[in-house]
Automatic annotation (TrEMBL):
Keywords: Hydrolase
Pfam families (UniProt xref): DinB_2 (PF12867)
The protein's name in its UniProt record: Putative metal-dependent hydrolase
GO MF terms held by the record: hydrolase activity
SUPFAM superfamilies noted in UniProt: DinB/YfiT-like putative metalloenzymes
Ranges for domain DinB-like: 30-165
Gene3D superfamilies: dinb family like domain
InterPro entries: DinB-like, DinB/YfiT-like
Keyword Hydrolase applies: yes
Amino acid sequence: MDRLRYPIGRFEGIPNSTADQRAGWMEEIKQCSRKLRFHVQNLTLEQLHTPYRSGGWTVQQVIHHMADNDMNAYIRFKRALTEDQPAASTYKEDLWADLSDYQETPIEISMAILESLHARFAILLDSLTPLDFERTFTSPTHGLMSLDIALQRFAWHNRHHIEQITSVKERLEW
């Protein structure tokens, strides 16, 4: 079950990453929406309403979660860049996934959010200096976190959810 939940493994940050590594994660963010769209473009409504694992979210819920999570992450980045060690807010993602917008909103709405947000986030990330990536915020769940680690977590999170979607497609031979 853990392999289905975490098909690429759990997040492991790299302390003191290099500029080349950061550039790779930034490129992942730029390409994320394109990759996600490729993997979901031909899914039927029935497939979108299929959980990626037993007891897990549906593909549609995963896509809406990605949009919500990335909006929150973007705000954390901006706050860390403009405030001294701000306390980041958290949200109850499992409860959010049960709300009607996750059930009733077409995925195209969240795809548009992700495409726009990633484009804007890429512009912000491209402007950051190595010192900017040392700025920090406090996460209620992860403690003090640098923007360097937050960037890594952001890229991992999207890769993780795209792999959940591709793995259910492979298992069910869609």
